């Protein structure tokens, strides 16, 4: 299901409401030049030959929504498969790039389990 489903939209709105809970030490808005530089770097990175991830010997937790337009979900599957100790969190349904925020309780539980192991 795409993240534009009723459940996905509801989870997205809930995340936006949670953002309002923190009133101090909030992140500053990104500047337009920084945003452009980030897009340029992503484009350049996306055209590179894939890196040899077999040299990474640490456990890595990989998480994503099932329909991410910014970082295609298939890339997360590939990343987890190419890491010797990659652990893939099942792709969050009805979620895109913000899957870990829409499913924050599930993600935090899984991340804590990962960090404790």
Automatic annotation (TrEMBL):
Keywords: Hydrolase. Residues 24-101 form the AB hydrolase-1 domain. One of its GO terms (molecular function) is hydrolase activity. Pfam families: Abhydrolase_1. InterPro entries: AB_hydrolase_1 (IPR000073), AB_hydrolase_fold (IPR029058). The keyword Hydrolase applies. This is Alpha/beta hydrolase.
């Amino acid at each position: 299901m795409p993240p534009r489903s009723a459940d996905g939209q509801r989870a997205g709105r809930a995340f936006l409401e949670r953002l309002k809970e923190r009133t101090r030490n909030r992140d500053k808005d990104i500047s337009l030049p920084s945003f452009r530089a980030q897009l340029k770097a992503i484009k350049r990175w996306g055209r590179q030959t894939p890196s040899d991830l077999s040299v990474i010997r640490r456990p890595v937790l990989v998480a994503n929504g099932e329909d991410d337009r910014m970082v295609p979900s298939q890339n997360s599957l590939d990343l987890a498969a190419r890491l010797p100790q990659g652990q893939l969190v099942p792709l969050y349904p009805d979620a895109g790039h913000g899957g870990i925020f829409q499913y924050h309780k599930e993600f935090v539980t899984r991340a804590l389990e990962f960090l404790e192991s």
